[in-house]
Amino acid sequence: MSKAITGFQPGFLWGGATAANQVEGAYNLDGKGLSTADMVPWIPKEKRGLGFAMDVTAEYIEDVLAEKINDRYPKRDGIDFYHRYKEDIALFAELGFKVFRLSINWARIFPNGDDAEPNEAGLQFYDNVFDELKKYDIEPLVTLSHYETPLALTRKYNGWYSRELIGFYTKYAETVFKRYKNKVKYWLTFNEINVITHSPYTGGGILVGQLPEKTKDQIAYQAAHHQFVASALATKLAHEIIPESQVGCMLARMQTYPVTNHPDDILEAQRQNDLNLFFTDVHVNGEYPAFMYRYFAENNVSINKEIGDDEILKQYPVDFISFSYYMSISVTTQGEREQVAGNMIEGAVKNEYLETSDWGWQIDPKGLRVTLRDFHNRYGKPLFIVENGLGAYDKVEEDGSIHDTYRIDYLKKHIEQMKEAVKDGVHLMGYTAWGPIDLVSMSTSEMSKRYGFIYVDQDDEGNGTLNRSKKDSFAWYQKVITSNGEEL
Question: Which N-terminal stretch is annotated as signal sequence (predicted)?
Answer without folding.
Answer: none
